[in-house]
Structure formats: structure tokens, C-alpha cells
Amino acid sequence: MPILGSNIAADVGLRLILNPIGSNIVIRTACCSVGTILPVYSTFKAIERKDQNEQQKWLIYWTAYGSFSLVEVFSDKLLTWFPYYYHFKFAFLVWLQLPTVEGANQLYKNHLRPFFLRYQDSSDQVLGYVYREMMKLISAHQAEIELLKTLTAEVVCSVDQFWRGDVNRVRPQNPRAIQDQPRTDGTTGSDSNSDPDPGEVD
């Protein structure tokens, strides 16, 4: 029975992957897992182990993946019309990471590195201009940004307290406690309605 169950699961999974209509969600989830989740964890391990070779490997991968994502942003609407687009994307992401072929390294050395070296000066000028304009915009709206930061911090703090169960619930106060609270005129609740002492009347 376990063998039969595993065969059925494998057959269903294979049908989902090979069916371009019914497997759209499945294959897109697989692309997200292979393209981002696994590389993020592998990058974390390379950083923690202080392995220079692994760090360089994943830096090159993120350069290739970022360039591909940038192209995909502007051509996604067109590319998604092609049959098996996400299947080819999945295969491409696997190819980028395979240790035997080192697709990301090949893509970087043969295409990305020559392109960036050729347009490095122009790119630096454009990025410098964009950075200066952004700093001007931030300086001109500093008050609004500080207000937004404050509001965001308050919302995050309130949500955190809510989920931790630390919200101060409004409870009705004891009427006697309200009566005993001092008033603004310096008199207490018990003295406000009391009659004057007969000995004090002239």
C-alpha cells in the first residue's frame, strides 16, 4: 500500500507539472521556491560560515537573478502568453544553480559582466543623478516622512501589543473612586455637596 500511495502521488505531481493549464499555481510556487527561498537560505549559510567562495557564488547568482527579474518585469505580460513559460522559467532557475554547469557564473561572465563594464560610467552618472534627486525630495518632505514614521511605529506597536494580549482594555471605574477623585477647584466629591459648618456661619 505505501508503494501504491507513493506512485499515485508521483503520478499526480507529474501530471500537474506537465499540464500547462492546471499546474499554473504549482509551477509558479515551484519557481518562487527554487528562485528565492532556497538561494536565500544558502546565502545565509555562506555568510554564517564565512565561506568566500560560496559568498561569491551566491552574489553572482543574485546578480543573474536580479537581471532576469528586471527583464521579466517589463516583458511579463508578453511572455506569459507563451505555452510552458513558467516551466521554462523553472528550468532556467535550476540551471542557474546547478553546481555541474554553474549557469549563473556563465551568464555573468559571458553577458552581464561585459555589459556592465561597457556601460559602467553611464550607469554611475544616472544612479548618481537619481540619488541626488531622491535626497532633495526627502529633504523637502522631511516633516511628512517623520510623521509617517511615527504613525507607522505606533501602528506596529499597537498590533504587537494586540497579538501579545497586552492591550489595555477600558474598564468601567468604580463610582466611589470617581467621587473621591480631586476636582479642578481643589474640592473633593464628598465636600462639594456638604452643608457648611454651623460654627463657621457668622
Structure description:
The protein has helices at 2-18, 24-49, 52-79, 85-97, 103-118, 120-140, 142-164, 175-180, 189-192. It has 202 residues and is mainly alpha-helical. The protein is extended, with a radius of gyration of 33 Å. Residues 1-6, 169-173 and 186-194 have low confidence and may be disordered.
Please give a handful of descriptors for the protein shown.
single chain, 202 residues, mainly alpha, extended
> First CA to last CA: what distance?
106 Å
SSE topology string:
HHHHHHHHH
| Mean pLDDT over the residues | 76
The number of E-state strands comes to 0
Tally of alpha and pi helices: 9
Sequence stretches where pLDDT stays below 50 over 5 or more residues = 1-6, 169-173, 186-194
Short structural summary:
The protein contains 9 helices and no strands. By secondary structure, it is mainly α.
Q: Topology, pairings included?
A:
Blueprint: H1 2-18, H2 24-49, H3 52-79, H4 85-97, H5 103-118, H6 120-140, H7 142-164, H8 175-180, H9 189-192
